[in-house]
Amino acid sequence: MKILILGASSYLGARIFFDLKEKYDVIGTYSTLQLTKSFLQLDVTKKDDINELIKKIRPQVIIHAANNANPRWCATHPKEALLLNQTATEFIASSVAKFNSKIIYLSSIVAYDSNTVYSQTKVKSENIITNSTDNYVHLRPAFVLGYSPNTTNDRPFNRLLKNIDEKVPAVYDTSWVTPMGYIGLITAIIKEILNKDLKKLIIPIFTEEKRSRFQMAKDILKHFNIEVTPVDKQDNSMSVAFPNVSQHLKKLNLPYIGYEDMVAKIIQEIKDRKKFVL
Ligand SMILES: NC(=O)c1ccc[n+]([C@@H]2O[C@H](COP(=O)([O-])OP(=O)(O)OC[C@H]3O[C@@H](n4cnc5c(N)ncnc54)[C@H](OP(=O)(O)O)[C@@H]3O)[C@@H](O)[C@H]2O)c1
Hints:
The chain has a single domain (2-275), classed as Rossmann fold, CATH 3.40.50.720. Strands 3-2-1-4-5-6-11 form a seven-stranded parallel beta sheet, with helices on both faces. A two-stranded parallel ribbon has the order 7-10. Strands 8-13 form a two-stranded parallel sheet. It has helices spanning 11-20, 47-57, 71-76, 78-99, 117-130, 156-165, 183-196, 213-221, 245-251, 259-271; strands at 2-6, 25-30, 40-41, 61-64, 102-106, 136-141, 144-145, 170-173, 177-179, 181-182, 201-205, 210-212, 228-231. Helix 4 (78-99) packs parallel to helix 5. The protein is an alpha/beta fold. The protein contains ten helices and 13 strands. It binds NADP nicotinamide-adenine-dinucleotide phosphate. NADP nicotinamide-adenine-dinucleotide phosphate binds at residues 7, 9-13, 30-33, 42-45, 65-67, 69, 84, 106, 108, 141, 143-144, 153, 155.
């Protein structure tokens, strides 16, 4: 099975690439950061380039992770956010339909609450894909944590690594409370989607427990003897209701990992980090 990961150099894309490469023929694309030599350059805002690449590779599956996942950037750059996170989805969806691929779209938990520019681009992208093919799965992870071969992007987990490796002071917010997503569970679920050829699904991937950034950082960093200082940033948490994730995943015969297990796995991944070579 040939799998094309768009945005394979991203924090999530790089870990998905790493986890799938043993078993599948995986091809990755990057825009500016060529994380490994085999990755092919692709700007997803260029319709003809997407078409050309998909026509050449003819992947059975496309995993789309090439978005800007920073809600603040999206709010301050609405035009650019729309182009990258939504218009590019139209281009990708039309190629997917043309060449009959399956598409696994990295959506987000924010799709449950379409109040921001970022969340609106995610909801609209899901709709664009849903309206163009039946062979889709939308993944809705939250606040993703866990080791990725991309350790440089400014993502929450990579900030924890900086606290450990560069002794950057660990000061974390107590106000914003959120479910969290384990990166290893995302790939475990992708493997099940591929094995069972699942389609026409929206899959939430996050813990039922909610934690603040402060609590999460404390739970992980204490294992590396890093002290965490609380700060109240008076950030509003999402107030929408989320589905019961463990039940939802159980119904689909998919694995679920709760908060405590996620933390244990992440601590082990940090200790074993040398194995994550692309
Ligand atoms: N991280 C999370 O907590 C989280 C949670 C829920 C959902 N998600 C979703 O998961 C996906 C990946 O997120 P992430 O956090 O891993 O992102 P990230 O590390 O910030 O990476 C963003 C990616 O977008 C690519 N990109 C930017 N402009 C591009 C363009 N014009 N053409 C092609 N690629 C372009 C970048 O490529 P280069 O680096 O090569 O320039 C990079 O690979 C996103 O769809 C995000 O919404 C993430």
